[in-house]
Amino acid sequence: MTTLDVISPKRRSHGSVTLWAGLALVGLHIAIGLLTLVWTPYDPTGMSGGRLEAPSWLHWAGTDRLGRDFLTQIMVGSRIALIVGTGAVAIGAALGVTLGILAAFASKLLDDALAATLDILIAFPTLLIAMLVVAASDTANLASAIIAIGIALSAIVARLTRILVKRVLLMDFITAARTSGSSWPAIVFGHVLPNIWPTLSVNFALQFGLAVIAEASLSYLGLGAPPPNASWGRLLQEAQGTVYTAPIGAIAPGIALVSLVIGINLLADGLRDSIDPTRRAR
Amino acid sequence: MSLLSVQDVTFSYNASKRVLDGVSLTIEPGDSIGLVGESGSGKTTLLRLLLGLTRPSSGSITFNGTPLDPRSARFMRDYRRQVQVVFQDPYSSLDPRQAVLSIVSEPLRALRIPGDHRQMVSDALASVGLERNILGRYPHEFSGGQRQRIAIARAIVAGPSLLLADEAVSALDLSTRIRIVDLLKSLSEQMTLVFVSHDLGVVAALCQKIVILEKGRIVEAGATASILANPQHPYTQRLLSSVPRMPA
Ligand SMILES: Nc1ncnc2c1ncn2[C@@H]1O[C@H](COP(=O)(O)OP(=O)(O)OP(=O)(O)O)[C@@H](O)[C@H]1O
Ligand SMILES: [Mg+2]
Predict the structure, then answer these.
(1) Considering only alpha carbons, which residue of chain B is nearest residue A275?
(2) Which of A35, A166, B2, B100 has the most beta carbons within 10 angstroms of its beta carbon?
(3) Could you say which of B97, B109, B154 has the minimum Cβ distance to residue A176?
(4) Is the backbone of residue B222 left (phi > 0), alpha (psi -120 to 50) or beta?
(5) B149 exposed, middle or buried (CB, 10 Å; 0-12, 13-18, 19+)?
(6) Does B96 contact chain A (CB < 8 Å)?
(7) Range among A99-113, B79-93, B173-187, B226-240 with highest mean pLDDT value
(8) Residue B72 CB-density burial (10 A; 0-12 exposed, 13-18 middle, 19+ buried)
(9) Which 8-state DSSP code applies to residue B52?
C-alpha cells in the first residue's frame, strides 16, 4: 500500500491530463456529429466540385470520385461512428455484463455450458454474426450492423466479466457483506460492479474502437450502412482505388478514426483514474 | 439456555474427506472461547457453518434454542444482527471502493436497522479506538491495524451478542497484535467471543475457555487454565510443547 501512496500523486496529475485530452477529442467529435444534424459545409450527397480535387480553400479535404465535398463526408462520418460505437458497446455491455454475472453465479454445470458457448461465439467472426442478423432482419442497414457488432462484442465482454466477478467473489469483503445481511443483488451492485468497473470500462473503450472498425468492414461488404451514408469505413474503402493519386481520401478518414479511438481510450483511462478512490486526491 | 449449540455436526466439501466430524459444542452467553487447531483442522469451516454461510452435512446448530436455518430470511435477519465476524486479512475484508462510512454502516443498511447511521458508525469507530472524522476516507489510507479496527467496528455496529474472529490478529505485527487483542478483550466483556487461532499464546491471554480441534474433531475442551496446566490429549500436549514459552 505504501508504494501505491507514493505513486498516487503522479498518477493523479497524469490521470487528469488524460481525462481532459480524452474529453477534448471525444467532445470535438460529438460537437461535429451534432453539427452535421443541422449544418454541413456542402450537401453530403450532392456534387459540389470536380472529381478527386486536391484540398483547397473551397474544399479543405478535397472532393471524392463523385465530386462530393470530402470534409462534409468525414464530418457526417463522425456522427455515424459515434452512433455505431455507442450503440454496439451499449448492446455488448448490457448483454455481456449480464451474461457474465449470471455465469459467475451459476452452478458449475451451467457455468461450464455458458463458458463453452461464449468461447464458440468469440470464435465466430463478427462478419458471420452480421450475416445472420441481416438474414434474420431481412435488411442490411446501420441498425443491423450495430446489433451484429453488439452481439459479437457481448461474448468478449461476458467472458471478461465472468472472470472478473469470480475473482471479486473470493474476497473477504463479499463474505463480510453476506454476514452483514446484504442480499445478492445488493452485493452485485454495491461491491461487485464497482470493483470490476475500472477494468471493464477500459475494455469498453477498446471495444468502441473495434466496433467502429468492424462497421467499416461490414459496410465494405454491403452489410453496414448503405450508401450514401458516409461512414469512415466506407470512405476508406472507396479511397482504396485512388490511394496513390489522391492519398488524402485514405488519410483523412484514417486520422478521424484514430483520433476518435484514441480520445475514447484516454477518456476511459482518465475516468477510471478519477473514480478510483486509491488514485484520487485526498 | 446456551446461546449457540452445535450438535454432532459433520461437514465435507467433497465426498472424499470429512472436514468436520461429529463436532459438538455449546457457547454460553458471556463466554470467550478460543478455538485452536493446526492449519487445515477445520476452524474456518466451523465458523462458516456458525455464520450460516454453509450448511452442515448432518447434525444441527441452534441459536437461543431455534435451529439455524439459512433459508429463512426472517430468522437470518435477526441472526445476522446477533452474530458478526472479523476476518484474518484486513486488506481483503474491506471493499477498496467504499468509504469508511459505507463499509461500517453496511449491516445497519442491510438489516434495515433504524436510527442515525452516521452517528452509530462514528460511535462504533470511537469504541474501537479510531477517530470519528474518518467517515469519508478509504481503506487504502489506513494501516493494517487501523483496517482491522474498521472491520471490528463494522462487526459491532449493529450491537451483536456473539462476535466470531477468524485469526483476526495473525496478519498483524506484534505490537499491533497486542493492541487489537486488548481491544477484543475489552469487547469480550460486553459480548460473547469465539476467537479462532493457531496461536495458543494469544488464546491464553484472551479466552477463558479453549476448544482444541484436530482433523475436524474436537479432542479437548475446557477452562483455559486447566487445559494449559494439564493437557489430557496427546495432540494438545504437542501443541503446547510447540509453543516456546507459555504465559501463565
Ligand atoms: N472451499 C473448499 N473446498 C474444498 N475443500 C476445502 C475448502 N475450504 C477448505 N477446505 C479443506 O477443508 C479443510 C479445513 O479447512 P479450514 O479452512 O476450515 O481449516 P483451518 O483450520 O481454518 O485452517 P487455517 O488455520 O489454515 O486457516 C482443509 O483440509 C481444506 O483443504
Ligand atoms: Mg482458517
Answers:
(1) B97
(2) B100
(3) B154
(4) left
(5) buried
(6) yes
(7) B79-93
(8) middle
(9) T
Beta bridge partners of B33: B194, B209
The per-residue pLDDT for A15 is 62
Interface of A with B (CB under 8 A): 1, 4-5, 171-173, 175-183, 186, 190-191, 194-195, 276-278, 282
Pocket of ligand 1 contains residue B13 by CB under 6 Å: yes
Do residues A278 and A15 touch, judged by C-beta distance below 8 A? no
Q: Is the pLDDT of residue A210 over 90?
A: no
Q: Which atom of ligand 1 is nearest to the CA of B88?
A: 27
Closest CA to B217 of B205, B238, B233: B233
Q: List the single best residue of A4, A5, A164, A179 to mutate versus B (max B Cβ within 10 A).
A: A179
| Minimum Cα–Cα distance from A186: chain B residue | B110
**pLDDT of B105-138, one tens digit each?**
999 999 999 999 999 999 999 999 999 889 999 9
Task: Output the nine-digit C-alpha cell for A196.
Answer: 470490476
Question: From the CA of A273, how many Å to the nearest CA of chain B?
Answer: 12
Q: The domain A22-33+63-279: what is its CATH number?
A: 1.10.3720.10
Q: B16 in ligand 1 pocket by Cβ < 6 Å? A: no
Edge-to-edge strands, sheet with B217-223: B83-86, B162-166, B192-197, B32-36, B209-214, B217-223
ipTM over 0.85: yes
Element (H, E) at A111: helix A108-123
